[in-house]
Specification:
With 486 residues, the chain is of the alpha/beta class. It has helices spanning 45-60, 69-85, 87-98, 102-122, 158-172, 186-198, 212-221, 234-245, 269-281, 301-314, 333-349, 384-387, 403-411, 426-435, 471-474, and strands at residues 11-13, 16-18, 25-30, 35-41, 130-131, 137-145, 148-152, 175-179, 205-207, 227-231, 250-254, 260-263, 293-297, 352-355, 374-377, 394-400, 415-416, 420-422, 442-443, 458-459, 462-463, 476-484. Strands 14-15-16-13-12-18-19 form a 7-stranded mixed beta sheet, sandwiched between helices. The chain has a 6-stranded mixed beta sheet with strand order 9-8-7-10-11-21, with helices on both faces. It has a 3-stranded antiparallel beta sheet with strand order 5-6-22. Strand 5 (130-131) and strand 6 form a beta hairpin. Helix 2 (69-85) packs antiparallel against helix 5 (158-172) and helix 7 (212-221) runs parallel beside helix 8. The chain is globular and about 70 Å long. The relative contact order is 0.14.
């Protein structure tokens, strides 16, 4: 691959690796060491214009949207194969650029390959319908690609989020301008190269690294962009919606979360605890699906806290490249400062630190952005730590008395993205699940994501559904055609 940790990472525009128009670069860091990792081209407004022009030409005049779906599928399958060939290299790049543990990076790179494989298969299964009408004739619908899409992804799951955006868009026949987070651009730029190598025509996949507010706003305002797909904070998503409103640009948003983990007294406590530590502390808590509000039936509250804090203390925090490490670095020192400020706010509000809440003691970890997994007790659901997304390794334990009390507290949140519910009573599980206002809910599991199933949130957690066949709705328009038979 052309991108390595020893070479500058260039933009991908119109089928070529190119420097930014200004020639400017910036250093992306390894958050686990604080050291510079690579120089990266910093795109500006001129580069946005170049990328939109290339994507527009590739959509309006190029072959991509007019290829048979089976031909586009072959490009997606080839991308998946190339990703699988380079799993170790891409995983190392992801870990060094983001601070996530290598075990997670390996799994996420494989998940990205699986995503391209899924949508390679889905490309030939985008169907219209025939509709009986009162007027004599034949009424039919077509699903056509929405056009040029600006796709903005976050720093917490760079290659996975890129695959979630790119794969269905390409399957539908769209062309893309992919904007990775400034902190973590390397695997997205690598995907741009992989698309070229797999046979995507020039301009179909463009990748711009650089300042998110500048590039994201420019894409949202640009008349040549038909749709914006964004994953990130609710605040930025709201801003993008306002910018897209000017020309009624299509928009889909996967935003923040404050996901609940609900434990009834009859739950398998041992299985729940062993699974749930990873549900909140995986990726150092930098996950919009992280089960950061743990609602526990009051009769087992003390037993749960004892087991959960004991298991949390056992988590191995350390070098993300060590296969035995379970919790890596936060993405930056600024992010760690944000998280620690919330821990302080929680204490001021009356919460108690049951474990964690500070940096590790090991000298080798001091240059990085590490924070010990933190459990806050004596929390009530109206505290800021229970209402606002912290995006770090902080769990808030909140008691409830019965089903009604549980549902009331869980739904008392501006978010509704994901969550888990633990009970042996299947009737209760279904009863409560139907009342919870969230887009994804797992029963006796902490797994939120399945490539075959829709993913997205209620309320301020977003608009639209990614993954599964539902994602193809985000990248297609419905055209109705009536043929008169009179």
């Amino acid at each position: 691959m052309a991108i390595t940790m020893a070479q500058p990472a260039l933009l991908v525009i119109d089928g070529k690796r190119v420097a930014s128009a200004s020639g400017q670069t910036y250093a992306t860091l390894n958050p686990a060491t604080g050291e510079a990792l690579a120089d990266v081209a910093e795109a500006g407004l001129e580069d946005v214009e170049r990328a939109v022009t290339a994507a527009r030409r590739a959509f309006d005049d190029g072959p991509w949207p007019n290829w048979p779906a089976s031909q586009r599928a072959q490009v997606l399958f080839k991308m998946a194969a190339l990703i699988r060939e380079r799993v170790d290299e891409l995983a190392e790049l992801e870990t060094r650029n983001s601070g996530k543990i290598i075990a997670d990076s390996l799994g996420e790179v494989k998940a990205a390959a699986a995503c391209f494989e899924y949508y390679g298969g889905a490309a030939t299964k985008i169907f219209g319908e025939t509709i009986p009408t009162t007027s004599p004739g034949l009424d039919l619908t077509l699903r056509e690609p929405v056009g040029v899409v600006g796709q903005i992804i976050p720093w917490n799951f760079p290659i996975v989020m890129a695959s979630w955006k790119l794969a269905p868009a390409l399957a539908a026949g769209c062309t893309s301008i992919l904007k990775p987070a400034k902190q973590t651009p390397l695997t997205a730029l690598a995907l741009g190269e992989i698309a070229m190598e797999a046979g995507a025509p020039a301009g179909v996949v463009n990748v711009l690294s650089g300042a998110g507010p500048l590039i994201g706003a420019a894409l949202a305002r640009h008349a040549g962009v038909d749709k914006i797909a964004f994953t990130g904070s609710t605040e930025v998503g709201s801003d993008l919606m306002r910018l897209c409103a000017g020309d009624i640009k299509r928009v889909s948003l996967e935003l923040g979360g404050k996901s609940p983990n609900i434990i009834f007294a009859d739950a398998d406590l041992e299985a729940m605890v062993n699974s749930s530590v990873y549900a909140v502390f995986g990726n150092a808590g930098q996950d919009c699906c992280a089960r950061t509000r743990i609602f526990v039936e009051r009769s087992i509250l003390d037993a749960f806290i004892e087991r959960f804090t004991a298991r949390t203390r056992q988590l191995r925090v350390g070098d993300p490249m060590n296969p035995e490490t379970e919790v890596g670095s936060l993405v930056s020192r600024a992010q760690r400062e944000r998280v620690t400020s919330y821990i302080e706010i929680g204490q001021q509000e009356g919460a108690t630190i049951a474990c964690g809440g500070r940096e590790p003691d090991e000298e080798a970890l001091k240059p990085g952005s590490f924070l010990l997994p933190t459990v806050l007790t004596q929390v009530n659901n109206r505290m800021r730590v229970a209402q606002e997304e912290i995006f770090g390794p902080v769990a808030c334990v909140i008691p409830f008395d019965n089903e009604d009390d549980c549902v009331r507290q869980v739904n008392d949140s501006p978010y509704g993205l994901s969550g888990s519910l633990w009970t042996r009573d299947i009737a209760r599980a279904l009863r409560v699940a139907k009342r919870i206002r969230t887009g994804v809910l797992s029963i006796n599991s902490n797994s939120s994501v399945h490539v075959e199933a829709p993913f997205g949130g209620y309320k301020q957690s977003g608009l639209g559904r990614e993954l599964g066949m539902h994602a193809l709705n985000l990248y297609t328009e419905v055209k109705n055609i009536f043929i008169s038979l009179t």
